[in-house]
Amino acid sequence: MNMAETDRFDMPAAVPAALRGLDRADVPMHRHVSWRAGGRARRVYTPADLIDLIAFLRSLPPREPVLMIGLGSNLLIRDGGFAGTVVLLHAVLGALALLDAPGVPREGRLRAQSGVACPKVARFAAMHGLEGAEFLAGIPGTVGGALAMNAGCYGAQTWERVERVTLITREGELIEREPRAFDVGYRHVEFTGPLALGEHVWFVEAVLRFDEGDGARARARIKEFLARRIATQPLQQPNAGSVFRNPPGDHAARLIEQCGLKGYAIGGAQVSPRHANFIVNAGGASAADIEALIDHVQACVAARTGVELVREVRIVGERAA
């Protein structure tokens, strides 16, 4: 990694060979995704820290499928499960700090590892007199997930605040890049290097830049955003956040509601009566129920409006036999 000493969390010179994390086999994944549905993973590893994650990736067979999960808020694992290794990162890569260097003004920069929950970043920034991070309070995921999909809400997006990122490769090597190394758009991030995000390389840290300002004003804005979420989203039921991207100049929720799909259900999965761009587990939903409902909504909206809705949520794994 090409970083100054003041810019880094603890990184020893050598990576120990012995693994220190929790290694389990045949793990039910409904406990680790916010929809509370889905199959089992053949193997689940919870690293002790970033150094242990490096060692673990280096220990894997070259063809082993790997899935990194934060809070599991944008993910559906099919009922047949995931025939590979899942790595759980939430709270493991949990370092969050102001980024100061001797003789250099702080300039509103902070460093966050990918397992930090986005709302925590919003609160941390506000408590340190920074503005511009408040929108992160409305994102029900981690920094890693927000980077991977350019998550946003309330008129702001994650990559508007990114100064640089650190990624880890499938071989356990760390690389640092600036935003110009990525093709970034609305709910879209693609690494322009030779490796594919989410398959061979993952975000592990980011330096984010916010504005020096009024912490009290930022905290008030966070409260306002959270009150809006509570009033408009089905937070009491398992869900994965917004299911579809908003099409240009329109809102997915408006199109879904226009098609009369609010409250429509397949098995235990239901289009939320509160917010049409949310699909909730109304009780006992399988991953197949949820995926079938996603497909049904897409087909109905396309047939009745001509708009092809694009999923925000990622679907992985095998269908049940």
Brief account:
With 321 residues, this protein is of the alpha+beta class. The chain has helices at 50-59, 118-127, 143-149, 215-232, 252-258, 287-305; strands at 22-28, 40-46, 66-69, 75-77, 82-88, 96-98, 109-113, 130-131, 152-153, 156-157, 162-169, 174-177, 182-185, 188-191, 201-209, 211-212, 265-266, 269-271, 279-281, 314-316.
What does this molecule look like?
The protein has 321 residues and is α+β, with helices and mostly antiparallel strands. The chain is globular. The N terminus is likely disordered. The termini are far apart. Helix 2 packs antiparallel against helix 4. The strands form 7 sheets. A 5-stranded antiparallel β-sheet has the order 6-7-15-11-12, sandwiched between helices. The protein has 6 helices and 20 strands.
Features:
6 helices; 321 residues; 20 strands; four-stranded mixed β-sheet; five-stranded antiparallel β-sheet; alpha+beta
**What is the number of strand segments?**
20
Mean pLDDT: 92
The end-to-end span amounts to 45 Å
- Outline: globular
Beta-strand residue percentage = 25-35%
Rg over CA atoms, rounded to whole Å, is 20 Å
Main structural class = alpha+beta
The biggest beta sheet reads: 5 strands, antiparallel
How do the helices and strands follow one another from N- to C-terminus? EEHEEEEEHEHEEEEEEEEHHEEEHE
Spans where pLDDT lies below 50 across 5 or more residues:
1-8
Q: How do the strands line up in the largest sheet?
A: 6-7-15-11-12
Helix content: 10-25%
Number of helices: 6
